[in-house]
Amino acid sequence: MQKTMRHPVLKWLWIMAALALIAVSINMFYAPHAVAAGGATGIAILVQEVAGIQVGITTMGVNLCMLALAWFFLDRSTLKRILFGSFMLPLLLWLTPEINLVTDRLLAIIVGSVVFAFGVGLLYQMDASSGGTTVPPLIFKKYFGLKPSLMLLVTDIVVSLFNIPVSGVEAFILAVFALTITSLVMNYVETGFDRKKAVYVMSDQLPLIKQQIRDETSHGLTVQQVVGGFSDEAKEMLMVVVEQSNFRQLIELVHAVDPHAFILTVAATEVHGGSI
């Protein structure tokens, strides 16, 4: 999948697919239940509830305003990165029918949040954007040094607050719930679902441990020179990256050789390169 994302032509198809997922999440899950979970599309849902203007039209209007801000306050490379999504998402919103696929409001928001997260996560994977309210956080970062992720969250919460006068408190609660689900799912989309564990081992029996692991598994081993935290002496530390399912087997192998070995385990979401 990573190779197809890097292909010049297929990359644009992936971007289109990501924007289509966002359009589906808005028109088939959020908008039918009048829940505005932040962003330009959230503003558009609120406007549709109040004035009956189609979501795609309002989204285009908001995106044009954001592009104007980007033109004056951001560099041209950032403007180019958000330009395609800023025009294509409103078009896809206009073309995607607004259908109430799930009648249960809570279930609709849960499913819509997952679909939305996959779309935005794919865009991030390809360094693309749907434009909209992602622009103000970038401006705050450039001129005030504020974190974009924090400012984007603030922006989304402010937009979500307008659910209260438009659609009620329940819609606001659902919007915040949607933001939480989206954030959690996006974390998995961005870092991958193929989760592994990086295991660090320090032991006086390290040569035997390495041999035992090589004999009974196919894991690559990396040895690093470190300074012991308690002894303040130069030592070797073994690093092994394993699948979740093989983690317990590795720990048992190490303890079989040295029950007192020092073991540190951390989550490894992306692993590149070979082993030594």
From TrEMBL:
Domain DUF2179 residue range list: 219-273
Q: Which organism is it from?
A: Lacticaseibacillus zeae subsp. silagei
Q: Which GO terms describe its cellular component?
A: plasma membrane
**Name the record gives this protein:** YitT family protein
Q: Which residues cross the membrane?
A: 12-31, 51-74, 81-100, 106-124, 144-165, 171-189
Q: Which UniProt keywords apply?
A: Cell membrane, Membrane, Transmembrane, Transmembrane helix
Per its UniProt record, what InterPro entries does this chain match?
Answer: DUF2179, N-reg_PII/ATP_PRibTrfase_C, UPF0750_membrane, YitT
Give the primary localization class. membrane
Q: How does it sit in the membrane?
A: Multi-pass membrane protein
Where is it localised?
A: Cell membrane
